[in-house]
Specification:
5 helices; alpha/beta; 46% helix; three-stranded parallel beta sheet; Molybdenum Cofactor Biosythetic Enzyme, Chain A
């Protein structure tokens, strides 16, 4: 199986923040038996993200997409992936509950 990692954020592409997520995720792909075929960073831009996702689908069976440490006003990742997949965004109550439970177990709140 093949894999790809796409990290999203203007700060990554501009060299303002060191991308430590990609190497970590590539290592995890290898541990799970996936061969990384592509690793790319892209700005928070829907067109650019859709283009790199198109390339990633040609190279890999599994694509991991991640951004920085939290949502920002310019984060278009979800919207871009939904557009690329031609699928609407949907709120998933079970996933939200899982996130809340994980954060609560660490003494954190999902909202500031």
């Amino acid at each position: 199986m093949t894999g790809a990692v796409v990290t999203v954020g203007d700060e990554l592409v501009q060299g303002l923040v060191l991308d430590t997520n990609a190497p970590y995720l590539e290592e995890k792909l290898l541990e799970l038996g996936f061969q990384p075929r592509l690793s790319a960073s892209v700005k928070d831009n829907q067109e650019d993200l859709c283009q790199i996702l198109g390339l990633a689908t040609l190279k890999a069976r599994v694509i991991l997409v991640c951004g920085g440490l939290g949502p920002t006003e310019d984060d278009l990742t979800r919207e871009a992936i939904a557009h690329f997949c031609n699928a609407p965004l949907e709120f998933h109550e079970g996933a939200w509950k899982w996130i809340q439970d994980r954060l609560a177990a660490r003494g954190r709140s999902p909202l500031p």
